[in-house]
Design brief:
The protein is an alpha/beta fold and 579 residues long. It starts with a strand and ends in a 15-residue tail after the last helix. The protein is globular, with a radius of gyration of 23 Å. Keywords: FAD, Flavoprotein, Oxidoreductase.
Length: 579
Amino acid sequence: MATELDKVEIVTVGVGWTGGIIAAELAKDGAQVVGLERGKGRSTEDFQHIHDEYRYAIRYELMQDLSRETITFRNHRDERALPMRQLGSFLLGEGLGGAGVHWNGQTWRFLPYDLEIKSKTDERYGENKLGEDYTLQDWGISYDELEPYFYQFEKTAGISGEENPKGAPRSNPYPTPPMKETPITKRFKDAAKSLNLHPFHIPSGNLSETYENPDGETINQCQYCGFCERFGCEYGAKSTPNMTVIPTALGTDHFELRTHSNVTELVYDGDTVTGVRYTDLQTGEEFIQPADIVVLTSYVMNNARLLLNSGVGRPYDPETRSGVIGKNYCYQILPGANGFFEEEKFNTYMGAGSLGAAVDDFNGDNFDHSDVDFIHGGVAAVTQTGQRPINNNTVPNNTPNWGKEFKSQSIKYYHRVLSVGAQGASMPHRNNYLSLDPDYKDIYGQPLLRMTYDYTEQDRKLHDHLSKKCAEIVKEMGADSVEPREISDHYNIVPYQTTHNTGGVIMGGDPETSAVNNYLQMWDVDNLFVVGASAFAHNGGYNPTGTVGALAYRAAEGIKKFREENGQLVKGRTSSKHV
């Protein structure tokens, strides 16, 4: 039987970027906050001997244990979903700081077009540009409304960057200058300019200089060691929740962190969420933590799964298109091109997670889509993240997958290949969604989350367009041979792609078509906020973290308003509770 604890004002489920931001902002405001994190505690000291590619990049030391909890997957509704037994397409972080510990650090702002994508697309191209099976919708907030929160996140993280000529407008410069120019980034920029494109340095959470943020937390200067994604930073030079918002929250007298605390259920009475049920993973004890306000701040999949398993909100039905929980799951596509150089060599083993240069000429609605059968686009970039020896051996397409020739070509091209890749935006489709699996359960007996997802015609056409554009840049960079990427017949969950999963608990201005308002407050449950990329109504052409951070600061403000108004509806909601 679960032990019921003393009631607290606010409890967060997960302590990564979103949980850390909520904890820091509300604890500074005097609220009593408890943060429940199912993984263990981590700090910079834990990463002093982290340059072990096999342990961290291949065996996923920092990631979720799929033997305890995983997801099931299928491409189509008429297939039976099967469990994901090992991490592949995306990496689910676990432990204090979550995926914010092992990210690369690219920190983008979604475009104004993204936030009002349905309205802006209809206005320019007419209604139903994509067809009725695409569930495109606005986010319920404009870029001008969200812009201050973008900057608030960038100031907290100390982001290093420079003006993006084709990006979202900025009221303030980046807190720190861009990262170093290298021969590779310069070659990309020169090629882009010769093609009349507009290159710039990627905005980076690997800092170009030591920085103290407004809360007094210090982030150190990047050492360009090349061990960022899938690794923690032993220099304390990567902007992570562990370097910024979590220490700020812990520095108050109002935040209590509980690690090894796995939340299995929201305690819901049909009107209000009165707390959460969780298990102490070290002792096996079960607890109920009552709270006035509950904030889901875990990863995309877990946010949706907790709501579905707890009976909170209306599950999405792709047949009738009714319901909202699980709706608009989106991922990304990865068009691009590899360029092989026969004589020139590059120091690709050096780098940092966000070291690179990009162009936004093919992103959002920055080019006319009148004569193409797709919308949106993606940022195209060359990145110098550090080519480590085990996981990096790009070879020409006609090379065998093993044997003497494979080894010879791997060695030859290890320093002789440059890639220009794009992050292709993902548009929501009625048949791409999240639900509960009817057959498989986790170790606690709870149904696993089921992902139904496949590429669409929108994806294929966008992929082909962007791959051609990337190939043009690589060719202009001087490659002797260029190989554009191809998209597979179906989405495959096995090979790694990105951890840029979005949707399932989407935001909007209408409770009929969205789960949360623009403060990420549940339409159906006033004292429940759901924060993270689960709120994205589609996925843009960038890494999601910068937009996640902005929405988290917006949600923190909404929670403050909710407290000030003694539990009344947050100002700006357009409807009362859904009936």
